[in-house]
Write a structure and sequence with these properties.
Blueprint: H1 16-23, E1 28-33, H2 40-53, E2 58-62, H3 63-67, H4 78-97, E3 101-105, H5 111-121, E4 126-132, H6 135-141, H7 146-151, E5 173-176, H8 182-195
Parallel strand pairs: 1-3, 1-4, 2-3, 4-5
Helix pairs in contact: 2-8, 4-5
The structure holds adenosine-5'-diphosphate.
Adenosine-5'-diphosphate (ADP) binds next to helix 2 and helix 8.
Length: about 200
Amino acid sequence: MKNSNNVVWHHATVTRSRREQLNRHKGAILWFTGLSGAGKSTIAHAVEEQLHRLGCHTFVLDGDNVRHGLCGDLGFSPKDRTENIRRIGEMVKLFVETGIIVLTAFISPVRIDRERVRSLVGVDDFIEIYCRCPLGVCEDRDVKGLYQQAKSGKIKEFTGISSPYEAPEKPELVLDTNVCSLDECAGKVMVLLSQRGIIGK
Ligand code: ADP
């Protein structure tokens, strides 16, 4: 995996904690996980909107802005899914060093892949948020018409239909998106961020 030798890390004088002081909030990674259509993107953007209004520095990463570019060479086989999450993990590790709150909205179906990111970035920075929603509800929502295509066999290896989803065992937060409204779900995330001292109370 490692082909780059003679690479020396340059230590910045502008450190993460200085950036955080300037930002007036801490950096963190809000890692949303769940089935397609469970509400990851919707909630991530709603939370980002609230944080932005409070003057926080944020960025949402999701499948669309990553799979077209950085991970455009990857498909949906187990190996490619793992590599996709590994690259995203390395990216969010850099993002959090900038002192921003990064929100990710990837299905990220494999538990060990998510746990690898948690270990890579550090447990304090990694906030796993499980958007829990029954498969049937996601299928009914079928936001992008993907379930229909997966069920007819047009899309292979689709999570929940022809590829497994491994629910988190100990996520920092569970959002039941078929029970709670979007506002309630976003509100729960904001409360957690306050409780953890990432944003002011
Ligand atoms: P994902 O990013 O997990 O694939 P999306 O956010 O794209 O899911 O889609 C979720 C869909 O479910 C949206 O159409 C959204 O309006 C709807 N929805 C209904 N209730 C909720 C809720 N409580 N939280 C988030 N989305 C919800």
